[in-house]
Design brief:
Blueprint: E1 5-9, H1 58-65, H2 75-80, H3 86-98, H4 104-116, H5 122-129, H6 134-147, H7 152-165, H8 172-179, H9 188-201, H10 207-213, H11 219-232, H12 241-247, H13 250-262, H14 268-275, H15 281-295, H16 307-324, E2 345-349, E3 357-360, H17 371-375, E4 383-387, E5 392-397, E6 404-409, E7 414-419, E8 426-429, E9 435-439, E10 442-446, E11 452-457, E12 464-469, E13 472-477, E14 482-486, E15 492-496, E16 504-507, E17 513-518, H18 527-531, E18 535-540, E19 547-551, E20 559-564, E21 570-574, E22 578-581, E23 587-592, E24 596-601
Antiparallel strand pairs: 1-7, 2-3, 2-24, 4-5, 5-6, 6-7, 8-9, 9-10, 10-11, 12-13, 13-14, 14-15, 16-17, 17-18, 18-19, 20-21, 21-22, 22-23
Length: 602
């Protein structure tokens, strides 16, 4: 007997074409923001008809909002102003030191100068504030208050995207200087875009600069240089100290392999296989990510899995790739470098005049007429999941018998929806159209008629459930204080304990975990106790064992979800609204003031 009633069944799920974007696609075009120019109603004799311009993409509309209109005059000059050169960077660093000078006039002059820098320096100021005293911290906050509305980091991401899409020589040095200012993990998406932009703009005359950058102090700069050499020069390094700098460092081997993969070099497969057993967790994760992207296959490898499981998965990869050597007709897919192009933000919220789901650009600009948001309006989703294998979106909401689920295509067409199911933990769609639904301590497998055809038994209640990729599902278990990943039949693949009632979790593209937890009870008289707040968002290493950062919203009792933006900041949805935080945990913008049920950055 069906567990719930189907409302709509348009056509079989398997009949639709696969989603053409995907998390590893070079660019995912999201049209929104600025409408196209209207068609002229008519033209008088002798007048040239008005040319209809195509609508701006989300990224172009962000640039236009920031006075960087790609269609306007002086765009190249304005674009260049977002990049520090080495002299300017050294001056900025000295001004940051001067913020703590004994001379009041020197401190004031540094504050004014830093407020006026055209290039993004907010991330440098935020990092400096972590170890600053009270006076310097107040000054930095004042500077950030002046600068934050310009959203220069957002502009930098989309400008780098334009450079990555074109062959524009002369940008390698400027991209390298800017890359050197960023943390290679916290700004993962931005630096991947920088790598591709530098690769596209590089020429033979840049080789000396790149070789020097390979031994630079800054990790992000070394990675960028290794990527460009892999992309532009086919990874062919002369035997030298420079070559040794790459081959003795797994992170640089990985970056070099990313560049070769982005250029379509088939020989990169051997290098990626060699990196799967790396001592670096980040290297293992990203090497596996690249192999899956190249071949469109998944042999169960995860760099954070138990060692025995990793060894078996590596063996399966080796067997598969070994078999391809005998079949010249099978070749890896050409792919980008992990660059994910343009993003959109979907926000589920309390009912209001704008509906229950709003689409935004990554700078917080509402996107009108976005069909996916309209299709989800009746759900008010607690969970939104994009599935690149099937090409569908699953939205679910409601933890009681009034719960609903909808399956939607990426163009916003609802395939089917269902009601009468307590979707407490979330849903995921499987190849073939079957649905997995987490309810309490069970994950039920339902067919297209709503009949239960299978069930998993979980060790404890799941309040979050999401498909990561083929054969891998992520769960949060608040009662056991654990996060876990399960296989298609419900078998446990990976687990980490020690979390305080985890309520929500997302595995980021860089492998790290964003986790919503109940905040540890603060000590009497501590700053945390004074500011209140019962929940927080923590970011951990891919294995969940090392806490990298914390976001503790002031006076917040319920955090529903969080999501990472391409500028490195994090959106946090609460009972009070939607706010954006820097990697250091400082609130920089309130997007929305209403109850937030879910956030999804895509």
């Amino acid at each position: 007997m069906a567990r719930f009633s189907l409302l709509v069944l348009s056509f079989a799920l398997g009949a639709l074409p696969p989603f053409a974007g995907g998390r590893d696609a070079v660019a995912v075009e999201v049209v929104g923001g600025v409408d196209a120019a209207p068609e002229p109603e008519g033209s008088s004799e002798g007048e040239k008809p008005e040319v209809k311009m195509p609508p701006l993409s989300a990224g172009d509309s962000i640039l236009k909002d920031l006075d960087l209109d790609p269609r306007g005059g002086a765009f190249d000059r304005k674009m260049a102003s977002l990049f520090l050169d080495q002299e300017q960077l050294e001056r900025v660093r000295q001004q940051m030191i001067d913020l703590d000078a004994e001379d009041f006039r020197k401190r004031n002059a540094a504050s004014k100068a830093l407020a006026m820098v055209e290039a993004p320096v907010e991330h440098l100021l935020g990092a400096a504030r972590r170890d600053a005293g009270a006076e310097m911290s107040r000054r930095i906050q004042g500077i950030l208050n002046v600068r934050i509305k310009k959203r220069r980091l957002d502009a930098l991401y989309h400008v780098a995207g334009k450079l990555a899409a074109e062959e524009t020589p002369g940008w390698v040095t400027r991209l390298g200087v800017m890359a050197s200012t960023f943390d290679s993990v916290a700004h993962w998406d931005l630096l991947r875009m920088f790598e591709m932009a530098a690769a596209k703009s590089s020429r033979q005359q840049d080789r000396e600069v790149l070789d020097k950058a390979l031994v630079a102090k800054q990790e992000a700069l070394r990675e960028l240089a290794a990527f460009v050499i892999g992309f532009r020069f086919s990874g062919d390094l002369a035997v030298s100290e420079i070559a040794d700098a790459i081959w003795d460092d797994d992170l640089l081997k990985l970056a070099n392999a990313r560049g070769r993969a982005a250029a379509g070099d088939r020989r990169v497969t051997a290098a990626l296989l060699d990196l799967l057993p790396s001592k670096s967790l980040r290297v293992r994760h990203e090497a596996g990510l690249l192999l899956r992207g190249i071949y469109g296959k998944d042999f169960g490898f995860a760099g954070y899995d138990p060692a025995e499981r990793q060894v078996k998965a590596i063996g399966r990869w080796q067997n598969f790739i070994g078999s391809l050597a005998k079949d010249r007709q099978v070749a890896p897919m050409l792919l980008g470098s992990g660059v994910r192009g343009e993003f959109m933000v979907l926000v589920g919220k309390a009912p209001g005049k704008e509906g229950t789901v709003i689409a935004w650009t990554t700078s917080g600009r509402k996107m009108s007429g976005f069909k996916i948001a309209a299709s989800m309006a009746a759900i008010r989703p607690d969970h939104i999941s994009f599935d690149d294998t099937t090409g569908f979106i699953v939205a679910s909401g409601g933890g009681h018998e009034d719960g609903r689920v909808a399956v939607i295509t990426t163009d916003g067409t609802e395939l089917w929806s269902a009601s009468g199911i307590p979707v407490e933990g979330g849903t995921a769609i499987m190849p073939g159209g079957r649905l997995l639904v987490a309810i309490g301590r069970e994950v039920e497998e339902l067919d297209l008629r709503g009949d239960r055809v299978g069930v998993w038994q979980l060790p404890s209640r799941a309040v979050f459930f999401q498909r990561l990729r083929e054969g891998r599902y992520l769960c949060a278990h608040p009662d056991g204080g654990s996060l876990a990943e399960y296989g298609t039949g419900g078998e446990l693949l990976w687990k980490v304990d020690g979390f305080n009632q985890p309520r929500w979790v997302e595995r980021l593209q860089n492998g790290n975990l964003l986790v919503v937890v109940v905040a540890d009870k603060p000590k009497e008289g501590s700053e945390q106790k004074a500011r209140g707040g019962n929940m927080e968002v923590i970011e951990t290493s891919p294995d969940g064992k090392v806490i990298i950062s914390r976001i503790h919203p002031k006076g917040v009792n319920v955090i529903s979800s969080a999501a990472r933006l391409p500028n490195g900041n994090t959106l946090v949805g609460t009972e009070k609204g939607l706010a954006e935080y820097t990697p250091e945990g400082y609130a920089v913008k309130v997007w929305l003031k209403t109850v937030i049920s879910s956030i999804h950055v895509r």
